[in-house]
C-alpha cells in the first residue's frame, strides 16, 4: 500500500494562517462587543470637521514617525541584528532581502525572537504609565503607537521585506492600521491589504494605491487608550505598600495585549505573503 507524501512544513504553516484568518471577524466576548459599540457611537457623535482633522493629524504623525525611525541609527542596528541572526542559518546573507532564502521555520524563529522583545518593551512601558505622573500619561498614546508601528516594521524585516522601498513603507503603515482595528473590522482590512500587496509586481518601487492610512473606524484605538488612562488614574488610589500595584499591572497588561495582537497580525501577514511568493 503506497503511503501518502507528508505535508511540508510550509503547507502546514499556510493552512494554520488561513485558519487564523477565518477567525478574524469572530468575537465571542459579549463585553468586548458592547464596549466596541459604545466607542462606535461616541465616534459617530464627533463633528465631521473634527473627525477629519484627527485623521489627517494621525496620518501625518504616522508618516513622519515611520520616516524618522527608518532613517535612524536605531533602525540600522536592528537591520544588522536581524542579518546576524539570519547568518546563523545561511552565512551568505548580506542584506534584508536575502532573508527570503531561508526556510519558513528559520524566518519564524527570527521573528519570534524580535517580537518577544517588543512585547516585553510594551509591558514595561505600560507598567510605567500605570505608576502615574503627568509626563508618563501625556507620552503614553504616542509611545504605544510608536512601539506597535516598530513591531510592524520589524515583522516586515524579519520576513525579508526592505522598508527602504516606498511600496513597502506604505504597506507597513496599512498593516499597522489593520492590526489595531477592532476585531470585527480586521478581516475586511486584511483582504484589502492583500489586494494592495498583490500590486507589488505591477508597481515594485512606487506605491500607486490610496495614500490615506487611518479611517474613522480606527479611532477606536486612541479612545481605548484614553479609557485606559482614566482607569489607571482611578486605580492609582489603590496602593499596596505605597505603590499602585494594580495600576501598574493593568497598564502593563493592556499594552502587552495590544502589542501581542499587532505582532501576531503583522507576523501572519508577512509570513503568508512570503509563502505565497516563494513557496506555495
UniProtKB/TrEMBL annotation:
Record InterPro entries: EcsC (IPR024787)
Entries under Pfam families matching the protein: EcsC
Protein name, as recorded: EcsC protein family protein
Domain of life: Bacteria
Organism of this sequence: Alteribacillus bidgolensis
Amino acid at each position: 500500500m503506497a503511503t501518502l507524501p507528508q505535508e511540508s512544513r510550509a503547507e502546514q504553516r499556510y493552512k494554520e494562517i488561513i485558519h487564523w484568518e477565518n477567525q478574524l471577524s469572530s468575537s465571542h466576548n459579549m463585553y468586548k462587543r458592547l464596549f466596541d459599540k459604545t466607542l462606535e457611537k461616541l465616534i459617530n457623535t464627533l463633528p465631521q470637521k473634527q473627525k477629519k482633522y484627527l485623521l489627517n493629524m494621525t496620518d501625518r504623525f504616522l508618516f513622519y514617525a515611520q520616516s524618522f525611525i527608518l532613517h535612524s541609527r536605531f533602525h540600522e542596528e536592528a537591520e544588522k541584528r536581524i542579518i546576524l541572526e539570519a547568518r546563523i542559518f545561511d552565512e551568505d546573507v548580506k542584506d534584508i532581502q536575502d532573508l527570503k532564502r531561508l526556510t519558513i521555520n528559520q524566518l519564524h524563529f527570527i521573528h519570534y525572537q524580535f517580537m518577544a522583545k517588543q512585547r516585553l518593551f510594551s509591558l514595561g512601558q505600560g507598567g510605567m504609565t500605570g505608576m502615574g505622573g503627568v509626563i508618563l500619561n501625556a507620552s503614553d498614546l504616542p509611545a504605544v503607537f510608536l512601539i506597535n508601528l516598530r513591531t510592524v516594521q520589524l515583522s516586515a524585516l524579519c520576513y525579508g521585506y526592505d522598508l527602504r522601498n516606498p511600496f513597502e513603507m506604505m504597506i507597513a503603515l496599512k498593516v499597522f492600521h489593520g492590526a489595531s482595528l477592532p476585531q470585527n473590522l480586521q478581516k475586511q482590512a486584511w483582504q484589502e491589504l492583500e489586494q494592495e500587496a498583490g500590486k507589488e509586481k505591477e508597481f515594485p518601487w512606487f506605491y500607486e494605491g490610496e495614500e490615506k492610512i487611518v479611517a474613522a473606524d480606527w479611532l477606536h484605538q486612541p479612545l481605548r487608550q484614553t479609557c485606559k488612562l482614566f482607569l489607571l488614574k482611578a486605580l492609582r488610589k489603590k496602593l499596596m505598600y505605597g505603590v499602585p500595584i494594580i495600576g501598574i499591572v493593568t497598564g502593563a497588561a493592556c499594552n502587552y495585549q495590544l502589542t501581542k495582537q499587532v505582532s501576531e497580525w503583522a507576523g501572519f501577514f508577512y509570513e503568508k505573503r512570503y509563502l505565497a511568493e516563494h513557496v506555495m
